[in-house]
Design goal:
Distance between the termini: 25 Å
Radius of gyration: 17 Å
CATH superfamily: Vaccinia Virus protein VP39
CATH class: Alpha Beta
Number of strands: 9
Largest sheet: 7 strands, mixed
Strand order of the largest sheet: 3-2-1-4-5-9-8
Strand content: 15-25%
Number of helices: 10
Structural class: alpha/beta
């Protein structure tokens, strides 16, 4: 299960509204756009591993899917379990408490962020493949290697020497280990753009592809809310990002990647 430090981070409740506004809203809209194209139609059975408070499980349930959220944070399970068509249980991505071949799609929407060791990430991918039925969809979200650097620059924090030093050390090897006095983020692993495809393929997935979620525009932190608030501009922005989602040269400029294939 989660280390005490990671568990404490999520028990603060930040996942409740993280994807509701600004850059978080862009992440949600783009992830949802991709999911609507790669998931089988309802009433398919979806397992949302690391589904937190049900940000995606809720809309999936309302769309007619049968969704099971598996999450290691008790408050997340409590929040998700109250959503229509959603069941929520405590569990670890590396050892899912679910039967083999029991889901039409398995989503790893958070676990890969916090598994520092390759063997642990391999276990999570393999467990997702085990639970998915033959031909089912397995998708995993990852944070990109240079997202922390782009983040501190966009938020005007690059001048803070300590934050800059932590960030540069993080991207050197992909591991983020927070210090007591600088809780920039909890313990995390940041993927190089080509890593998720290799991990997914090694787990047995076929036809693996990686899409950039937010593309390069997520760094416009002071403009995203305004752009998404305008109905016309919002549609046009999402259309442009869809067109760029598979561009190899831009994968590393996105904050998140979504990698998927068939079991």
């Amino acid at each position: 299960m989660l280390t005490p430090e990671i568990l404490a981070y999520y028990e603060r409740g930040g996942e409740t509204d993280r994807l509701a506004a600004g850059v978080g809203r862009l992440e949600f809209l783009r992830t949802w756009d991709i999911l609507t194209r790669i998931l089988p139609p309802p009433p398919a059975v979806i397992v949302d591993v690391g589904g937190a408070t049900g940000v995606y499980a809720g809309p999936l349930g309302r769309a007619g899917y049968s969704v099971t959220v598996v999450d290691p944070v008790p408050s997340h399970v409590a929040a998700s379990s109250g959503l229509p068509s959603v069941t929520a249980i405590l569990g670890d991505a590396r050892s899912l408490p679910l039967s083999s071949d029991s889901a039409d799609a398995v989503l790893l929407m958070g676990p890969l962020y916090h598994l520092l060791e390759p063997v642990a990430r391999a276990l999570a991918w393999r467990e997702a493949v085990r639970v998915a039925r033959p031909g089912g969809v397995v998708a995993g979200a990852t944070i990109t290697r240079h997202a922390p650097l782009l983040d501190i620059v966009s938020r005007g924090l690059f001048g803070d020497r300590q934050i800059r030093a932590i960030t540069l050390a993080d991207i050197a090897h992909g591991r983020h280990l927070p210090t007591r006095d600088r809780q920039v983020f909890t313990t995390a692993y940041f993927h190089a753009p080509g890593e998720p495809i290799l991990e997914a393929a090694a787990a047995g997935l076929t036809g693996v592809r990686t899409f950039a979620v937010e593309g390069p525009v997520w760094t416009m932190t002071d403009r995203i809310t305004e752009l998404l608030a305008d109905p016309v501009t919002s549609v046009e922005l999402l259309a442009v990002l869809r067109g760029l989602e598979a561009e190899p040269a831009l994968l590393g400029a996105s904050s998140h990647l979504l990698t998927f294939g068939k079991s």
